[in-house]
Design a protein that fits this description.
single chain, Glycerol-3-phosphate (1)-acyltransferase, alpha/beta, 246 residues, seven-stranded mixed sheet
Length: 246
């Protein structure tokens, strides 16, 4: 098992080294095509890891309409799972500056049209959020993990940060809660061994933000997401196929 995990890590590292320069080069020409390269990187990493992503939509979503997707966070594989679960969307990540220090991956993240937030510099953080508003007005969607870091891996969520909700309110863009289950079983928040398996993603119904106060919006989204998490693995309704989702 340890040897298999080492081989998986080596495969992911090689995949990242190969894809990162391509994604950055293509993003310099067209950010949308650069993101398509990133999606290929995700597919290969999931394949190398022996991980399947199973997705259900509560309601069909139009990928031509921008949304702020809000997800729980318990594993690095949450990022891969959400990208795989929303293949028709052009997603941009609101990511903390510390992630840009990760070798190769961080360099690609910084140069691939995503939104980098320096949480120690309020002025810079607000400037980045304003830039994100402009991206969404051009039709791009944004994904945030409001916990800011990985949770304990037991299904509970840490306290939420406010930046993503300020972003949604400023842009007037609906929030879509995304419940991810099983990612901590693939790679725990404190472990390094990668286990194959299935990650379930339940994409929720959009929540309007117009006329809603920020703290009220945060409570509403959190309650909705907490209610979705137990259902993220239960086949309570027929899955919405990608063609039906837009």
């Amino acid at each position: 098992m340890v040897l298999l995990s080492v081989l998986k890590l080596l495969g992911i590292a090689l995949n990242t080294v190969l894809f990162a320069p391509v994604a950055v080069a293509v993003s310099a020409i067209d950010g949308r095509w650069g993101y398509r390269v990133s999606q290929l990187w995700v597919r290969f990493n999931l394949l190398l890891s022996g991980v399947r992503v199973r997705t259900r939509y509560e309601t069909p979503l139009d990928p031509r309409v921008p949304y702020v997707f809000v997800s729980n966070h318990q594993s690095y594989y949450d990022v891969l799972a959400v990208i795989a679960a929303l293949p028709a969307f052009q997603l941009r990540w609101v990511a903390k500056k510390e992630l840009t220090q990760v070798p190769v991956f961080g360099w690609a993240l910084r140069h691939s049209d995503h939104i980098i937030i320096d949480r120690s510099d309020h002025v810079q953080a607000m400037k980045s959020l304003r830039a994100a508003v402009e991206k969404m007005r051009s039709g791009l969607s944004v994904i945030i993990f409001p916990e800011g870091t990985r949770g304990p891996g037991d299904g509970t969520m840490l306290p939420w940060k406010k930046g993503g909700f300020v972003l949604a309110l400023d842009a007037g863009i609906p929030i879509v809660p995304v419940a991810v289950r099983g990612s901590a079983d693939v790679l725990g928040p404190r472990g390094w061994q990668i286990h194959g398996g299935t990650i379930d993603v339940l994409v929720g119904t959009p929540i309007p933000v117009i006329g809603v106060e920020r703290d009220q919006l945060m409570r509403c989204v959190r309650e909705r997401l907490e209610g979705m998490l137990p259902r993220a693995v239960a086949p309570a309704s027929r899955p919405v196929r990608l063609a039906e989702a837009g």
